[in-house]
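Example record

The entry below shows one chain as it appears in the dataset: sequence first, then structure tokens.
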Amino acid sequence: MTVFDIGGLIGVTTILAAYAATTLGRLAPNGVIALALNCVGASLILLSLTQKFNLAAAIVEGAWALIAMVGLIRIALGRRGQ
């Protein structure tokens, strides 16, 4: 197992933990923590895909990270305007 495999597994665990926490009502799905966990998790999976590329997985993880990042930027801009 390589460091990239371990990073990918950490990414999967991070995304699944965030999903479980939001489903169980422990995290707000549009909150900073949930979005940050999703962004970090998807980014780690994307990093692991640089070693064993899979187009479909790269597309879904890239979209996942991008959507989470847009949410984080919107939160940051909203707080700055207040």
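Notes for this example: The chain has a mean pLDDT of 95. Residues 55-80 form the longest helix (26 residues).
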